[in-house]
Amino acid sequence: MQKFLFLTTAAAIIGLNACQKANKNEQKAADSIAVATGDTTAMIDAKLPDPASFAGEVAGKKASLYILKNKTIQVAISDYGARIVGLLVPDKNGKVTDVAPGFLTVAAYEKPDGAFFGPVVGRFGNRIAKGKFTLDGKAYTLALNNNGNTLHGGPSGFHNHVWDTKQVNDKTLEMTYVSKDGEGGFPGTVTTSVTYSLTDDNALKLVYSAKTDKATPYNPTSHGFFNLNGEGSGTINDHLVMINADKYSAVDKGLIPQGEPVSVAGTPFDFRKPTTIAARVDEKNEQLGFGGGYDHNWVLNKPKAGELTSAAEVIGDKSGIKMQVLTTEPALQFYGGNFFKGTDIGKYGKPIVYRGAFAMETQHYPDSPNHPTYPNTILKPGQTYSQTTEYRFSTVK
Prior knowledge:
Blueprint: H1 2-37, H2 51-54, E1 56-58, E2 61-63, E3 65-69, E4 74-78, E5 83-90, E6 96-98, H3 106-110, E7 120-121, E8 127-128, E9 132-135, E10 138-141, E11 150-151, E12 164-169, E13 172-179, E14 190-198, E15 203-212, E16 216-217, E17 221-222, E18 225-226, E19 240-243, E20 245-248, E21 262-263, E22 275-276, H4 286-291, E23 295-300, E24 309-315, E25 321-327, E26 331-335, E27 358-363, E28 378-379, E29 385-395
């Protein structure tokens, strides 16, 4: 009897090992197929970083990670740069997908390649030509950080500081940063507040407000990166994009706007009807050549200035995840990930490949302080800056 039990148990163990080996082989084969087809979302179990392991210190100030959630989506936000670190939403089949590529540690965001992954940027989002402008008859020179220009506030911009943060409830986070007079070369002490919240209609909502004690250029925006097929899933080339804009800003080699916005009609910049990013991104076009693809400002069609209206829609070709961008801002910078080198490793151990993520940065026009005819970006004492932007998520089959 004992011998029979031993033989039965041994057979069961052998069978279990064989089954586990077969399952591993099947998974390995499935993973190989996924890699070959570019569908690597099947290989990722999406989850947000652990706040305990993400914590760190920047310039002597403790950095932390906060989690917001509603019934459908979750987002991880770091107080270092008020940045989006991960964003979990369900795809068309209900599978949880992380649509915000990012990194697992604060230290990774301190590196040059990580600086603009997901933060709120300012004091002036986008570029100021040669880092120079004149305000009230006085010339100012800013710190440079992008081909002889000042980009996103320069090296000491909002992205490079730990914000004071209060988690109001499971769905709301209040963040504040005080930019002191002279920081990066900008005049005035500016206090910026950004409230992140998750709405009942599955939007990640950002509400900005700011005040200053001296007149200063001011144009903050979220530099969130997205891949609607999921981080690590390959390029965003086959995402469908619609941008509600009849005009865009033509630029020079340094991506500085030249004159007044021009019509998108008959150009690769016409996204008034849903079009894949790949459809025209590699056409021979001087503007595409300057940006290495899409990295331009679109002037949004606005029935009334300052209203919250739809700016853009993007759909993940594999996931069916749809992201609608709504904003009170007059313009939008669409950046197609043209400068990713594939050397940055994301949260799931996979490289963030060339054109592996996109950004939809709601904003005023780039270099506005040097263009009197562009919408005003000068914040003055006694005024309160306000802006609202939403990234609203749903699915299509």
